[in-house]
Each structure stands twice: as structure tokens, then as C-alpha cells.
TrEMBL record:
Species of provenance: Staphylococcus equorum
The entry's keywords: Membrane, Transmembrane, Transmembrane helix
UniProt entry tagged with the keyword Protein biosynthesis: no
Protein name: PTS glucitol/sorbitol transporter subunit IIC
Pfam family, one: EII-GUT
GO terms classed as biological process: phosphoenolpyruvate-dependent sugar phosphotransferase system
One of the record's GO cellular component terms: membrane
Superkingdom field: Bacteria
PANTHER family: PTS SYSTEM GLUCITOL/SORBITOL-SPECIFIC EIIC COMPONENT (PTHR40399), PTS SYSTEM GLUCITOL_SORBITOL-SPECIFIC EIIC COMPONENT (PTHR40399:SF1)
Keyword Membrane: yes
TM region positions: 21-44, 64-87, 141-159
Length: 181
């Protein structure tokens, strides 16, 4: 009987711990996300949506910015899944690489900017908790994730662009390669 009691206590204890984590989310993370989302939307409104759009359209002309700064700004300001709509400012030939860069950046950005992809927050919190238990600081981990993410999305964007160009040529879609927006 002692084993059954311990199993029952452990089973209920698991849900009690889950309740504590959930309460922490309600009192800490959810208000943070609401404030961040409100601040970002207010900033876009203050700057003006047309100005933001024009700025993004201009910087997509440069490869390094197209696959680092543009995905970063899209994920930060428009969050997931709206960040993909920024691809509309790019010529068709760059869209596959832009998408690849942007989707690859959704996890690394979460540590410093949880509002950008709140669905990834639970993964980030699990990794960060383990890192903290091992003696690391979450702020350092978040910064390392972000910087590594920027390097990875640049590489992925560049490689995907080259693969896309090759496939466009192979399929006879050279008109896509020649178009400019």
C-alpha cells in the first residue's frame, strides 16, 4: 500500500507543480507579452505603417540585410505568423530564401523578445531553466541564441537563394530571376 500512496502523491504532485508554473506564467510572462506587443504596435503606429513599409522595401536590396535585419525586424515587429507578410516587399526570386531565414529565426529571438513568438516560449523556458541549473545566466544564453540565430539565418538565406536561383533556371523560370520590384 505504501507504494500506491507514493505513486498517488507523485501523480498529484506533478499537477501541483504544473499549477505553480501556470500561475507563474499568468503573473509574470503573460503581462510581459501584453506590454511588449502593445509597445511594438504603438511604435509602428507612431512611425507610420507606410514609413515602415518603405524602409523595409529599401533595405531588401542588400543580401546581408535581406537575410538578417529584415527577418529580425519582421519577427520583432509583426511577430509570428504575421512576420511572413513582410516577404511581399521582396521580388519573387528572393521569397523562398526570405521565408527560410524568417522561419529559422523564430526560436533564437524568443529569449530576448518573447512577444515575437510566444509559442516558442515554453521551449525557451525549459532550455533556460536547465542552463540556469547548470550555473549559466539566462541573459547570456538569450544573447548567444540571438547572435547564433542571426548567423544561421544569413547562411540559410544565402544558400536557399542560390538553390532557388538554380531551380528557377533548371525549370525554365528565368523571368522570375529577371524581375525587379
Amino acid at each position: 500500500m505504501d507504494i500506491i500512496t507514493k505513486l498517488a502523491d507523485g501523480f498529484i504532485g506533478m499537477f501541483e507543480e504544473g499549477g505553480k508554473v501556470f500561475t507563474g506564467f499568468i503573473t509574470d510572462i503573460i503581462p510581459l507579452l501584453v506590454v511588449l506587443i502593445t509597445a511594438v504596435n504603438a511604435l509602428v503606429k507612431l512611425i507610420g505603417e507606410d514609413r515602415v513599409n518603405n524602409f523595409i522595401q529599401k533595405i531588401t536590396k542588400f543580401t546581408i540585410l535581406r537575410y538578417t535585419l529584415v527577418p529580425f525586424l519582421a519577427v520583432f515587429f509583426f511577430t509570428n505568423p504575421m512576420c511572413y507578410t513582410v516577404g511581399r516587399f521582396l521580388p519573387e526570386k528572393y521569397k523562398p530564401a526570405y521565408y527560410d531565414s524568417t522561419v529559422s529565426f523564430l526560436h533564437p529571438v524568443t529569449g530576448l523578445f518573447p512577444h515575437a513568438n510566444s509559442a516558442e516560449l515554453f521551449i525557451w523556458l525549459g532550455v533556460a531553466q536547465g542552463f540556469s541549473k547548470a550555473g549559466g545566466e539566462q541573459a547570456n544564453l538569450a544573447l548567444m541564441f540571438l547572435l547564433t540565430g542571426l548567423i544561421v539565418i544569413l547562411m540559410r538565406g544565402f544558400i536557399t537563394e542560390k538553390i532557388s536561383f538554380y531551380l528557377f533556371k533548371k525549370q525554365g523560370l528565368t523571368h522570375i530571376l529577371n524581375e525587379e520590384k
